[in-house]
Amino acid sequence: MFDVDVTADGQVDKATVRESMIGDREIVSCMEDALHGMSLPGVVASLRSSGPVYGDSVSPEGRAPMGHPAAAAAAAGAAVNLIPIVLIAGGVTILVAVTAHVAEEVVEEVGEAIEAARRRRAVEQMCATELERCLSYRPQPDWNQEDFASHKHCNFCYSECKKKGEWPDYKCPRPGYRPN
Description:
The chain is an alpha+beta fold. The protein folds into two domains: 101 residues, no CATH class; 45 residues. The protein is built from five helices and eight strands. The relative contact order is 0.11. About 16% of the residues have low confidence.
């Protein structure tokens, strides 16, 4: 079992053996060196997007899926367990487990990105609710027809709402709204 420290750009900064049943220190050292030479941008990207993790082996031909971390990895200290790697050499099967520890600045960045995504979803949900309300009653109030025609342009109001984070009552007034 290995622990690797991954920098913000996905480079393995440090690889250390946590636990080993292999009696040969040279093989373990070789495995540490191979892990240290890896690039794991998928680990960092997965924390940002909660998508699949893809690891880079030493050679481009050896690239293979390595795991799917939980979205909570950032909140749980940014340790991402990758699925085991199976090596077969000279008739011996070696199972290698790797835990990637991501740099502190990435954890903070991921936390901020998650919070921003939550805010965006809340705004989009509010805007979608107001869009439905607008589409259910499209006539523009008499007091607003001179500026914005006889019917509300609900889709334009929806787009503006998503950009600004609030429903544009001046353009698509909700029931009961009157300007001051």
